[in-house]
Amino acid sequence: MDSGWIVASFLSRIRAGVKLSAFALLAGPLMAFPLEAPGWRTGAAAALLLGLSGELTAAALARRLFQWRWLLLAIVLLHALLTPGRPLTPWMDLPSREGLFIGLGQGARVGMLMGLAWAMGASTPPSALASALADGGAALGWKGAARWSALALYTLGRLPFLRGETVQARWSLAAR
């Protein structure tokens, strides 16, 4: 029952624990260093996302990121408006160049992390992700790893139902 919505790609053949570890190894450096730092992090994330086979394509990723466009736009605008620096235009003080570049960098980071999480989730059954989370947490000595794993399994199992409810609500609102 899990595998009905899993997309076939080369990522489907990789164990969930390996994917979870790779996500954690890529996520840390992406958030810790400036975007202008050596490009191996950006290149690795782009290669992982764009070199995917099957239905995990750049167009599918773009559709997913488009769904989150308001969050990404808010990240860029808040950084541009609230970070002090040189004004972007001579007649207005508020959007600063530094803030705009910082916001674009943060938006790109969040977009890459969303893409990595989407690729992992689209190629792995929820039960395998929950099991990998429990095994990894137990190996690291986290207390309550099994409880978090059960919560993750329940949450991931409810997502298809919630997706269906959302689509149904949109159709009913559009029909009015």
Structural class: mainly alpha
Across the major sheet, the strand order is 1-2
What is the total tally of β strands? 2
Major sheet details: 2 strands, antiparallel
Write down the overall mean pLDDT: 76
Kindly provide the radius of gyration, computed on alpha-carbon positions and rounded to a whole number of angstroms.
19 Å
Approximate helicity band: 55-70%
Number of contiguous helices = 7
Q: Between the first and last Cα atoms, what is the distance in angstroms?
A: 35 Å
SSE order, one letter for each helix or strand: HHHHEEHHH
Strand content: under 5%
Low-confidence stretches: 1-5
Shape: globular
Question: Could you explain how this protein is built, in words?
Answer:
This protein is mainly alpha-helical. Helix content is 70%, strand content 5%. It has helices at residues 16-32, 40-50, 58-67, 69-82, 97-122, 126-139, 145-175; strands at residues 87-89, 92-96. It has a two-stranded antiparallel ribbon. Helix 1 (16-32) crosses helix 6 and helix 2 (40-50) crosses helix 5. The model is unreliable at 1-5 (pLDDT under 50).
In brief:
Helix content is 70%, strand content 5%.
Task: Give the key terms.
disordered N terminus; 176 residues; two-stranded antiparallel sheet
Write the layout of secondary structure elements.
Layout: H1 16-32, H2 40-50, H3 58-67, H4 69-82, E1 87-89, E2 92-96, H5 97-122, H6 126-139, H7 145-175
Antiparallel strand pairs: 1-2
